[in-house]
């Protein structure tokens, strides 16, 4: 018989062998999900804010960079005008006492934008491309001897002259202390000599054994200009002048005394003729002076004067404009290579953000 007694109620969770989750546990899971959603939203919002801030900063930096270039181009125009006026007023020589050599002190161009600029006569330095004749292949013995003396005065190895000659000349025959592709191909990584004129003096860092400290010592006295560009004795540094003559004369003076002598001369000092005379007076034998590491024989006597004279001038065509532009807290340095032709017109040949 079937009993009429009511059956006890079984919780639904037990019917399936489980337990009924409590409301407290359900609330905990919901809270955890809400926290995760908030965290994810915060991360996404922070990433979007960062990206927006970086985009705005990049846009501002690009704008400031373009503005600095425009200010530097304005400085180029001012420098060109000054060089043109100097060429008209004094066409006989280019010297440090002329108006073009006066630096521009920090000046406010527009509110918040400051410009400071100065011009340097690059032909007052030793043109390392002149270690090779204008044919691009024949070593210039007089220039090599002078450059070796300059290296010696700076406590650098004279053999660097031969290395530079092999770096420039078109042939593959190494100088006595030089190096060609066979040496450079063994380096890590390997590379070849360009066999072309040097475009930047920083290329010397690729020479075997050339350290950064040695380059920093040599850099203020050298420049890389086209083949055949002469040294302006009116602006040449004292060490460069003494390297040309072969004995210490102007480098014995302090920088202040040397500057005073130039100012007191009222013109070009020393003139090419004075340098040639000093070279002849100092020459009793080989121009190289018998220095260790000199691998190229040097002319003597009257041949020295003839060789030296082809390297000297008192007019300059190549200048470097250094522009320092300040925009708020941002600072920019622009270096412009300027060329002045025979008519006095000036044009920029190269812009860079490093001096060498």
Characterization of the model:
This protein has a five-stranded antiparallel beta sheet, covered by helices on one side. It folds into two domains: 57-122 and 317-352, GSPII I/J protein-like (Pantoate--beta-alanine Ligase, Chain: A,domain 2, 2-Layer Sandwich); 125-313, EpsJ-like (Ribonucleotide Reductase Protein R1, domain 1). A hairpin with a 2-residue loop joins strand 1 (104-110) and strand 2. The model is unreliable at 283-303 (pLDDT under 50). It has helices at residues 12-15, 23-89, 141-153, 160-168, 181-184, 212-218, 238-245, 255-265, 272-281, 302-309, and strands spanning 104-110, 113-121, 126-127, 222-223, 231-232, 312-313, 318-327, 330-340, 346-352. By secondary structure, it is of the alpha/beta class. The protein is built from ten helices and nine strands. It is elongated. 40% of the residues lie in helices and 15% in strands. Helix 3 (141-153) packs across helix 7 (238-245) and helix 9 (272-281) packs antiparallel against helix 10.
């Amino acid at each position: 018989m079937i009993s009429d007694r009511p059956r006890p109620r079984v919780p639904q969770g037990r019917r399936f062998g489980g337990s009924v989750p409590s409301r407290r546990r359900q609330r905990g899971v919901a809270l955890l999900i809400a926290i995760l959603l908030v965290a994810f939203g915060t991360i996404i919002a922070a990433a979007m804010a960062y990206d927006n801030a970086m985009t705005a900063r990049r846009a501002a930096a690009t704008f400031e960079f373009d503005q600095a270039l425009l200010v530097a181009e304005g400085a180029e125009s001012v420098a060109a005008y000054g060089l043109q006026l100097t060429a008209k007023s004094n066409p006989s020589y280019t010297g440090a006492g002329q108006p073009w050599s006066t630096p521009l002190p920090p000046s406010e161009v527009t509110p918040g934008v400051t410009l400071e600029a100065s011009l340097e006569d690059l032909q007052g330095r030793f043109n390392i491309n002149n270690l090779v004749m204008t044919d691009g292949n024949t070593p210039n013995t007089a220039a090599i001897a002078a450059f070796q003396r300059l290296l010696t005065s700076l406590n650098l190895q004279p053999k660097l002259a031969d290395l530079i000659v092999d770096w420039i000349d078109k042939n593959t025959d190494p100088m006595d202390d030089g190096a060609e592709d066979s040496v450079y191909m063994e380096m890590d990584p390997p590379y070849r000599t360009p066999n072309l004129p040097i475009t930047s003096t920083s290329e010397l860092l690729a020479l075997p054994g050339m350290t950064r400290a040695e380059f920093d010592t040599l850099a203020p006295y050298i420049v890389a200009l086209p083949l055949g560009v002469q040294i302006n004795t009116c602006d040449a540094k004292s060490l460069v002048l003494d390297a040309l003559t072969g004995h210490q004369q102007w480098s014995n003076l302090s920088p202040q005394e040397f500057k005073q002598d130039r100012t007191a001369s009222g013109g070009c000092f020393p003139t090419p003729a004075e340098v040639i005379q000093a070279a002849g007076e100092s020459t009793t034998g080989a121009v190289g002076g018998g220095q260790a590491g000199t691998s190229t024989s040097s002319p003597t006597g009257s041949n020295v004067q003839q060789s030296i004279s082809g390297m000297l001038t008192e007019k300059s065509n190549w200048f470097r404009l250094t522009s320092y532009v300040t925009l708020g807290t941002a600072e920019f340095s622009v270096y412009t290579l300027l060329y002045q032709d025979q008519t006095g017109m000036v044009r920029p040949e190269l812009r860079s953000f490093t001096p060498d």
